[in-house]
Amino acid sequence: MPDAPELDLAVIGAGSAGLSITYVAARLGLRVAIIERERMGGDCLNTGCVPSKALLAAAHAASAARRAGRLGVRLPEPEIDWAAVRAHVHGAIAAIAPQDSEERYRSLGAEVIRAEARFTGPGTLEAGGRRLTARRIVVAAGSRASVPDIPGLRDVPFHTHATIFGMEEKPEHLLILGGGAIGVEMAQAHAALGCRVTVVEHGRVAGREDAELASVVRDALLTEGVVLREGVTVAAVEPGPVLVLGDGTRLRGSHLLVAAGRTPNLGGLGLEAAGVRATARGIATDTGLRSLTARHVYAAGDIADPEGIGPRYLTHVGAYHAGILARRILFRLPARVDYRALPRVTYTDPELAQVGMTEEEARAAGREVRVLRWPFAENDRAIAEGRTEGLAKLVVSTGGRLLGAGIAGAHAGEMIGLWTAAIGRRLSADAVAGMVLPYPTRAEVGKRAASTFSLDRLFAPRTRWLVRALGRLPG
């Protein structure tokens, strides 16, 4: 390390993780520089969360208009103005962009360097022809779309999440390679906006999620007219674009979206010059996000691989990592990653939200568990709104402690926070069942599921005998 570094902290990458730790460091008066080679705000603002949710909002509005007849409100088939939809998407980006802008971070006291950064040695970086020295360096360079090694794929035009929102024309028939969160969200969005959509997935759609809950999303996609080809492989891609499946079937579309996962942005960082070890999964760190091989270097967000458990490609994980780094770097306090209560949401309609262990994960880990369910079909608010599809599903230990929670239904993402707190604080199903929630709300579905844990005991013969005995006492 240099004797007198010019910076207390250098941050590579202006996405969620990088911006968050820079904000805290700058507000506390540290000498901090954030280095970004592309756009401030990273994927989330420019090509991920914000544009995708804006596009989905337009799609959900169209779907709601089509469903309005169930409530006695008859509307004509929605007219999709693709240019206006695109304007809404890019307007959402523009409205949020000032929060992530160079101007804002410079006003906080941070130095913003718009260039590519690479390590030139321990504690030293080169960015835009300038040599920087720093006491601590945080690598938050994010990730990019993975492109599978399929013959012919790189020879035909295709989109990823980074380019799909820039399409000026509405796709006539969108082929989507991959049925994970991005794939199913974009499938439903484009189908609701009047496009033909076919999803090709080698497993099942939403394969990472609980199968019972994922079936709710699958049914919604089919209702929207999305064609699902599950359990198939793509042998080749030909101009058209045409997907040639393993069984010889040929699927022709007008546009192709590759949604086959993500890859950390490790290239060009010069990590070896600083002695930073990385694998294809990301920079190897301890649970406190410090590099295992370079003590002055930390990693955060999509590029961090703490203790080999792999990255979590979620925007809120970047902000979570920033909080850990603030405690460790700025205040020298112990802090470590704990994904036990990490929520995730697939923003289809209905949404699918999960936190903690799924039923399959718990049983694979050898846990003896009970599974508690309650359907939206038995929720008064859902019935009143005519949206009764889905359910809440809780995974609890035999003693009743919450291990996992999943909700498939309208607004599930807004309800998962309660279960994130409950699992994080190691609460029991009975503790949540004892909460008082406003009526009528969809949140009652989860509470009703939790209450089923004790119902067998409550109405058991022994309890019935006790109540009768107590009833004979005077007073």
Q: In CATH, what is the homologous superfamily of the largest domain?
A: FAD/NAD(P)-binding domain
- What is the radius of gyration computed over CA atoms, rounded to a whole number of angstroms? 25 Å
How large is the share of residues in beta strands? 15-25%
Point out poorly predicted stretches.
none
Number of strands: 24
What is the name of the CATH class of the largest domain? Alpha Beta
The backbone outline, from C-alpha atoms, is globular
| End-to-end gap | 79 Å
Mean pLDDT: 96
Main pleated sheet? 7 strands, mixed
Q: Which structural class fits the helix and strand makeup? A: alpha/beta
GO molecular function: flavin adenine dinucleotide binding; NAD(P)H dehydrogenase (quinone) activity; oxidoreductase activity, acting on a sulfur group of donors, NAD(P) as acceptor
Protein name: Dihydrolipoamide dehydrogenase
Domain FAD/NAD(P)-binding: 8-308
Disulfide bonds: 44-49
Give the topology, please.
Elements: E1 7-12, H1 16-27, E2 32-35, H2 42-46, H3 49-67, H4 82-96, H5 102-107, E3 111-113, E4 117-121, E5 124-127, E6 130-139, E7 143-145, E8 173-177, H6 181-192, E9 196-201, H7 211-223, E10 227-230, E11 234-238, E12 242-245, E13 250-252, E14 255-258, E15 262-264, E16 278-279, E17 282-285, E18 297-299, E19 304-306, H8 315-330, E20 343-346, E21 351-356, H9 359-364, E22 369-375, H10 380-385, E23 391-397, E24 402-409, H11 412-424, H12 429-433, H13 444-458, H14 461-471
Parallel strand pairs: 1-2, 1-6, 2-3, 6-18, 8-9, 8-14, 9-10, 17-19
Antiparallel strand pairs: 4-5, 5-6, 7-15, 11-12, 12-13, 16-17, 20-21, 21-24, 22-23, 23-24
